[in-house]
Amino acid sequence: MLKRLSVLFTLAAVLLGCEPEFEDKSSTNYIDTPTGVTAAALSATSIRVSWNTVEGATSYNVYRSMISSGPYSFAGSSTSLSLTDTGLSASTTYYYKVSAHNSYGESTQSSSVYATTNGSAPGAPTGVTATSASSNSITVSWTAVTGATGYYVYRAISSSGSYSYRGASTSTSYTDTELSANTAYYYKVAAYNAYGTSEQSSAATIGSAPSAPTGVSATAASSSSIIVSWYSVSGAAEYYIYRATSSSGSYSYEGVSTSTSYTNTGLSENTTYYYKVSAYNNYGESAQSTYVYATTSGSAPSTPTGITATAASSSSITVSWSSTSGATGYYVYRSTSSSGSYSYRGDLTSTSYTDTGLLMSTTYYYKVSAYNSYGTSEQSNYAYATTSGSAPSTPTGVTTTASSSSITVSWSSVSGATGYYVYRSTSSSGSYSYRGDLTSTSYTDTGLSANTTYYYKVSAYNSYGTSGQSNYAYATTTGSAPNTPTGITSVASSSSITISWSSVSGATEYYIYRATSSSGSYSYRGYSTSTSYTDTGLSANTTYYYKVSAYNAYGESAQSSYVYETTWSSTSPAPLTGSSLARGIWRDGEIDGQVVGSQKYYFYATAGASYTVFWNDAWNGDGSKTGIVQVYAYWYSNDEDIFWGDNGEDLGYSYGKTFTASRTGYVMITVELYSYFLYKGGTFAIAYQ
């Protein structure tokens, strides 16, 4: 309605030629106030507020107060025509107002409406107690419950049993009659009103006083205390202790305990005390037990005084003290600092003690306590003294342990020594030279020769001087690991390669390692006690790399330089014969009485690679002349020529022939001698690179 009037006013202003004023859209009068507001209780904790639609409103705000005149606080917002206000108190009146809201602002609040929440069932009673009223009746009482109009009483014969209805009461007590004497009963109470009945309360019980304690005993704990003990009594909450100075005397209350023992303190020593005990619970106190008694012991002696300490030598101190009345003996304690931990040193019946085996020039602190059959006194004040000094004694217990290049010398610690000198000789009676100055009791002499005997002596020293040298001890260094193998060669077939090497002095066996590239990881393949090893089960036409190490009881050598070999092609027409050439290694040959094909050699070539074959002059059997060596190279697979050559007639000449492989496969080399030397046992050497 207000919005329509605002529009008409604006049109009228335009028709009359007047400038219209701008509207204040934030005004609370720009939207109508809600009407038809009502409030209705839904439960004991909620009220629903409803209203009519307001034109142009996008939402509605609801405000609440406990009184009609306010103030009203925000209770919630709704985009519908109602809002349920929850979490309220039962049987309570609440007042509400509603406003409409849109983008221009909020309307004025509506007239107030109110509603009262429903009532609720009362809470469970608390403070429930049960008291014996007579030998056959019990009175049950409880605390009043707000909102309750009455109470129901229930009973059981065990706390967790079935509780049966016994009666109702509008007051806060109920007397249950016709009960059995000396019987425990359990009760629960529920409150009710027009809205319902509460949960049952916690159980309350009534029973009888406990029986008198049994098994009572009394034991003197010290010269001023006695411990009284007894068996646990069923149903007892606590126990009362009574004391007298004679068995038939008057027993006076001494104390209470919730456990089954009681320590009576502050008593006189060497005195007999008598005790009785009773048990107690909510229903009363039992009769007192039969009496027991105990006699306190005597007292421990007082702390010794007059403590003195005097150094008797470089390794002993005498401690003295005044006699203590009542003491039958004394304990002596020692420390290396006045405030340190004092350890037990001796048990004496006299008033002095000599402590021996001490370190020279060292301060020791002493305390003394006195004891008798009743106990031990506190420790006395400390007294201290410092032992005198002297040169240490000669070391003993000298032992040696050897390796291949070192010997460790060890010895027993010498009292008073601040360090040790070590001496060495190569004979037991020889001249011993200085080797080292140690503060520990061991020394490792390094850089020694293997399999050599060395002799050692040790002396101890301190600020007062140096001891004599000890008896000698000796040890022989062990052997060393062998050298690395050399002269490694290899020979291949289509599925195996045989590795050979020169013998290594001192080696007992050899380890063979293999890789698939020169710089690859070499894995262990096996060992050999000879100077060769055949690696089997290999792939055809494959290159393998090998290294060899030597081993003995002292260790393993470094691995050798690698050699490599390529297995034969699995498609070769026939097994190769003759000797395999290893790259860069000369092989010697001899020809005697053969005209054609005197010696044959082979190696595996790769297509595109260059190779040079070397050979030298042949010498006859008497070593006086040389002759022409003829070399013929061809492919094994089809006998195709590669080259032919000889060395001419130059004495001592070493000749080479280079070629580039046109294919991959085995190159066969035949070596022949000029016929003049053929029957004279001519010798030569050949290699390839």
- The chain-level structural class is mainly beta
**Sequence stretches where pLDDT stays below 50 over 5 or more residues:** 1-28, 593-597, 649-653
Any idea what the radius of gyration is? 59 Å
| Overall shape | flat
The helix content, as a percent range, equals under 10%
Describe the model.
- The protein starts with a helix and ends with a strand.
- A hairpin with a 4-residue loop joins strand 41 (489-492) and strand 42 (497-500).
- It contains one helix and 59 strands.
- The strands form 15 sheets. Strands 3, 4, 6, 7 and 8 form a five-stranded antiparallel sheet that branches. Strands 11, 12, 14, 15 and 16 form a five-stranded antiparallel sheet that branches. Strands 19, 20, 22, 23 and 24 form a five-stranded antiparallel sheet that branches.
Supply the key terms.
45% strand; mainly beta; five-stranded antiparallel sheet; flat; 689 residues
In summary, what is this structure?
The chain contains 1 helix and 59 strands. With 689 residues, it is mostly beta strands.
Task: Summarize the SSE layout with pairings.
Elements lengths: L1 H14 L22 E4 L5 E4 L8 E7 L7 E6 L3 E4 L7 E10 L2 E2 L6 E4 L12 E6 L2 E5 L8 E7 L7 E6 L3 E4 L8 E9 L2 E2 L6 E3 L10 E4 L5 E4 L8 E7 L7 E6 L3 E4 L7 E10 L2 E2 L6 E4 L12 E4 L5 E4 L8 E7 L7 E6 L3 E4 L7 E10 L2 E2 L6 E4 L12 E4 L4 E4 L8 E7 L7 E6 L3 E4 L7 E10 L2 E2 L6 E4 L12 E4 L4 E4 L8 E7 L7 E6 L3 E4 L7 E10 L2 E2 L6 E4 L12 E2 L6 E5 L7 E7 L4 E7 L1 E2 L6 E2 L1 E7 L5 E6 L7 E7 L4 E9 L8 E7 L1
Parallel strand pairs: 49-51
Antiparallel strand pairs: 1-2, 2-5, 3-4, 3-6, 6-7, 6-8, 9-10, 10-13, 11-12, 11-14, 14-15, 14-16, 17-18, 18-21, 19-20, 19-22, 22-23, 22-24, 25-26, 26-29, 27-28, 27-30, 30-31, 30-32, 33-34, 34-37, 35-36, 35-38, 38-39, 38-40, 41-42, 42-45, 43-44, 43-46, 46-47, 46-48, 50-59, 51-58, 52-57, 52-59, ...
